[in-house]
Amino acid sequence: NGGIGTYVKATAETHAQAGDRANDAVRVDGRELRCKVLVEGGNLGCTQLGRIEFARAGGRICTDAIDNSGGVDASDHEVNIKILLGLPVAEGELTVRQRNALLAEMTGEVAALVLRDNYYQTQVLSVSGRVAPQLLDEQQRFIRFLEKSGRLHRALEFLPADEDIAERRAKGEGLARPERAVLLAYAKMWLYDALLASPLPDDPWVASALERYFPAALVARYAAYLGRHPLRREIVATHVTNSTLNRIGSTLVHRLMEATGAPPHEIVRAYLLCRETLGFVALWNAIDALDNRVEDALQAEMLIAARAELERGTAWFLRGRRSSGEMAATIARFRPPAEALSARWPELLDAASRERLEAVAAQWRARGVPAALAARVANLEGLSSTLDIVEVAEAAQRPVELVAEATFALATRLELPWLRGRIAQLPADRHWKSLARGAMLEDLAEVERTIVTEALTASPGTATCKALLEAWEARSRRAIERAQQLMGELRTAPAAEPEMLAVALRELRNLA
């Protein structure tokens, strides 16, 4: 759809409500459209309710703002590039004619930067649609948060009322794509303001986003002027907001705010640390490279799996204010040992976990995913625990390899992978259930960390994993037997109830 006029409305709307009398005779309802995809090249080709009706009937549609965002993005780049080049022009280093020639030279690269931004913006809308019913509760809480803070008028944006959300929950439905698009826009405006008001854009590592925002040819010639751009902080805040929410969705920052009490900029900081430390950018690029080679649903599955582990890693950095240090130093501290452990991950796992994850990887290989990528995504589960291993190794002044072997050996001895799997299966479709499950998983990780630390520090001269394990068992035999007895009872139960899992955690705390 292009040009001027509103051609699609909702069944419940009148032509007068569409506000375009010239096209009353040709306007149709969203449910009457027989196309599969509708893209709006102009503004307000459909009413928002018309879009929602079409989407809920199975059509693919975003909003006019999403469909036309490339033009806005290109204009932003143009203005910011001209402001930057105005500095060397004012100092006589560059003539206006030379500036104009450089602008023309960078056209292709600016287009690539704009398309990249818009690719990931629409990707996150598609991926979130795959799990729309599961996201409904946290989306509802985010909508309420925006309303209470005076940033959103739900009715004006045609977002569903709580009663409508309750009906969709009962039907197993989530927000429609046009509704998710509106929520993403509000999330970006909210997060941008929060980041701009924080010290995050001034961090030297974060500020390096300027080099990724501008074309490489411009950065290569005029890097000295980047720090003098009058809109430097605004550009950094915009770039970080987009790169964050286009990957993790509109609600995760708010959900972690509720779960941890941390402000938005600290959550984004922790996200960036986790992303860089555990190598998520390379993983995402490998998944994106499968476009038109494997089914879209398969790429979405892998991206959703990555998001779950990214969330756990982000929460890890938030705990204990581990993200408060200088970012470049923190990344340099954790990334090399984490990469080394990641390469050894499959051989460290217990036999049952290794077999289960190999089966997952085999399914993905059968559907066209390259073997290395299939294994990488399958072994994402629990990868954030490498951060604990690195930290424990530093505190105990022991080799990372020894700590990793001891961690997995002790976990296998106490059947912690099985317990972790049972906790992960607990329902988490509502806020408090999600918090309860997350708290139990964090408690289990802390218990495991404590047991490993005690085993290491109680036997400072022990240099092998086998000797460490034997010494630990000799000191803790009775508590180990009690924990194993309880785990045996849990295994025979038809279903692991939250109360039973809580008791198991209590016994493990006693052992620790």
Short synopsis of the structure:
It is built from 27 helices and two strands.
Describe this protein's structure.
The chain has helices spanning about 15-20, 50-55, 65, 70-90, 95-105, 105-130, 130-150, 160-170, 175-195, 205, 210-215, 215-220, 230-250, 250-260, 265-275, 280-290, 295-320, 325-350, 350-365, 370-380, 385-395, 400-415, 415-425, 430-460, 465-475, 475-490, 500-510, and strands spanning about 10, 30. The protein is globular. About 35% of the residues are buried. It is mainly α and about 500 residues long.
SSE blueprint:
Blueprint: E1 8-9, H1 15-18, E2 28-29, H2 48-56, H3 64-67, H4 69-90, H5 96-105, H6 107-130, H7 132-148, H8 162-171, H9 177-196, H10 204-207, H11 209-213, H12 216-222, H13 232-248, H14 252-260, H15 264-277, H16 280-288, H17 296-318, H18 327-348, H19 351-366, H20 371-378, H21 385-396, H22 400-413, H23 416-424, H24 431-458, H25 465-475, H26 477-492, H27 498-511
Parallel strand pairs: 1-2
- Radius of gyration, rounded? 26 Å
The portion of residues assigned to helices is 55-70%
Order of helices and strands: EHEHHHHHHHHHHHHHHHHHHHHHHHHHH
Give the end-to-end Cα distance, rounded to a whole number of Å.
Answer: 64 Å
Q: Can you tell me the residue ranges where pLDDT is under 50 for at least 5 consecutive residues?
A: none
Key traits:
512 residues, mainly alpha, two-stranded parallel ribbon
